[in-house]
Amino acid sequence: MTNKILPLTCSIFIIGIGSSQIARTNPFYCFIIFLLLIIFAVIFWQNKKYRVVALLAAFFVLGMWRYQITQPIINKGHVAYYNNQTVQLTGQIVAEPDGRVNGTKLTMGNIVGKDGNLLGGKILLSAENYPSYQYGDWLKFTCELERPEKIEDFDYGKYLAVKGIYSVCYRPEDLTLVDGKISMGQKIYRKILAAKKHYREILNTAVVYPHSELLNGLVLGVRAGIPEKILQNFKDVGLTHIIAISGMNITIIAGLMMNLFIALGLRRGQAFYAAVGGLILFLLIIGWQASAVRAGIMGFIVLLAEKTGRLSKATRILLLAAVIILMINPQALLGDVGFQLSFLAVLGIMYFDAPLQKFLTKLRVPEFLEIKSSLKMTLAAQILVLPILVYYFGNLSLVAPVANILIVPLLPFVTILGFVIILAGLIWLPLALGLGLVARIFLGWIIWVAQIFARLPGAGIGMGQIDVVWVIIIYMIMGWLIFIMKSKTPMPNKIPNQKSKK
After folding, report:
1. Which of 29, 41, 103, 132 has the highest Cβ tally under 10 A?
2. CB pairs under 8 A, 24+ apart, for 264-268?
3. 396 CB-near residues (< 8 Å, 6+ apart)
4. Residue 256 scores a pLDDT above 80
5. Above 70 in pLDDT, residue 501?
6. How far apart are CA 241 and CA 178, in angstroms?
């Protein structure tokens, strides 16, 4: 029982956060109940049954309390108080500008009202592409603020709440650049984003269009310039995740990167540190976004599990990491799709590793260049994320598994090649142009596979809006199957059929 306490308490804490988002409660009452449960557990400490029940209940209430205290108090000191009003404000761009074809989205923080008072909360402001603004700039503007509303079946307000945004400004007037203080940390981050912009220019020069835009999506997470037809093909065949800096994408890339380094001759320990270095470099190049860092933590857990081979212990680490992430930002549980995808992808890798290993061995998939390991990880990561992908995007692709098998194992090669092109472009541009020709082959393959599979029957089946109850039922069934699978075939402590390179 002792070895189950940590995963059980972590799970109860997470359930508490989720329950609090569905049924709102008073944070003060939650805190009082939490204290009473702790006191009850201390008084009846000698009674194991009472102690365990009281502590689990305390962690459940703690999760509810943690979520409730993150909810904004909407008063005159919060920017959302002025929704549906026209106000004059001054604010700072506190996130990377999101440039798109039809305009740029700016996240404004450190909001100062007309009377000079600092307001809590953030505003998502829609601006023209020209003149361009950068992270850290201070802007003065007049706008009628609005509350983020649902867009068809997409809960836009919940998505923005993860970032602390509760107001949007679609039509700003008198948008003016003004002087303001920029901290040292902001200056450093501004340089990181400026470097990212330069990296994009190198990729656009070294690789022909539209392959260059696809490479920007894979390496830098910038997908604004990818043609709509390619995006639609990716959606129809279940490949959208490869061009988004999502938890699933980073998790798969992290594991495949380690397999790649092993295939190149590094020992397992050396490949682990090389892959961790590559993961950190990847997060730095894409701008060290909060959502990407959360996904990067999950990717690190996959690397750790691959290094040690102890999947059962990695499950505890995964739950503990999820608790830490949700302690920092409990809104991420139901509002951040990337967090959900990364958590489920890692869980799938852990629980379906052994069954897929046996299945691929029967199919005689070769071990050469870690092909079997990479294929196994790609399939395992997708098993648990499929229901939630269908729920959010309303699209089911029967050809997705095959399309992913043909493309996803190439991602670490293409990603690393993208890094090398950037490095070459910083040193000698003709070298980057030569490497760009090689990248074009891989990128052309990805585009071609997506195009061919999008034409097949079973691609892009519209499912409409699925009730969340069915998603819960599907995951309950999956959980039951995993339980049966574990009870019949105990999960090994070591990953089977892996080269023992230490």
Report:
1. 41
2. 266/501, 267/501, 267/502, 268/306, 268/307, 268/499, 268/500, 268/501, 268/502
3. 390, 461, 463
4. no
5. no
6. 38
Q: Which CA distances in Å does 48 have to 9, 45, 342, 367?
A: 15, 7, 35, 49
Q: What pTM does this model have?
A: 0.79
Average confidence (pLDDT) over 342-358: 83
pLDDT in tens, 438-464: 999 999 999 999 999 998 887 777 776
Q: What's the pLDDT at 137? A: 95
| pLDDT surpasses 60 at 499 | no
Would you call 178 helix, strand, or coil by DSSP? strand
- 17 and 120 co-located in one domain: no
pLDDT in tens, 476-498: 888 888 878 777 655 444 444 44
pLDDT tens for each residue of 413-427? 888 899 899 999 999
When the pLDDT of each residue in the chain is averaged and rounded to a whole number, the result is 84
> Which DSSP symbol is given to 166?
E
Residues 6+ apart with CB under 8 A from 359: none
Closest CA relative to residue 80, chosen from 160, 126, 127, 145:
145
Are 269 and 412 part of one and the same domain? yes
State phi, psi for 129 to the nearest 5 degrees: -70, -25
Amino acid letter, 166: Y
| CATH (domain of 141) | 2.40.50.140
Among 350, 286, 345, 273, smallest CA distance to 312 is for: 350
Look-up of token digits 């203080």: 181
Q: Is residue 21 part of a domain?
A: yes
In the chain, the percentage of residues whose pLDDT exceeds 90 is 33
What's the number of domains the chain is made of?
Answer: 3
Question: What would the pLDDT profile of 307-329 be if each residue is shown by its tens digit?
Answer: 776 655 677 888 888 898 899 88
Per the structure, the complete domain to which residue 461 belongs is given by 206-488
Higher pLDDT, 446 or 243: 446
Average pLDDT over residues 148-158: 79
What 8-state DSSP symbol labels residue 333?
H
Place of tokens 């503990």: 320
405: CB partners within 8 A, 6+ apart: 375, 378, 379
DSSP-assigned beta bridge partners for residue 143:
87
221: phi > 0 → left, psi -120 to 50 → alpha, else beta; which? Answer: left
**SS3 labels along 79-148:** HHHHCCCEEEEEEEECCCCEEECCEEEEEEEEEECCCCCEEECEEEEEECCCCCCCCCCEEEEEEECECC
Q: Are residues 254 and 361 in the same domain?
A: yes
Residue type, position 149, single letter = E
Asked if 261 and 270 count as a contact pair (C-beta separation under 8 A), the reply is yes
Residues 38 and 114 placed together within one structural domain of the fold: no
* Neighbour tally for 494: CB within 10 Å: 11
Contact 243, 477 (CB under 8 A): no
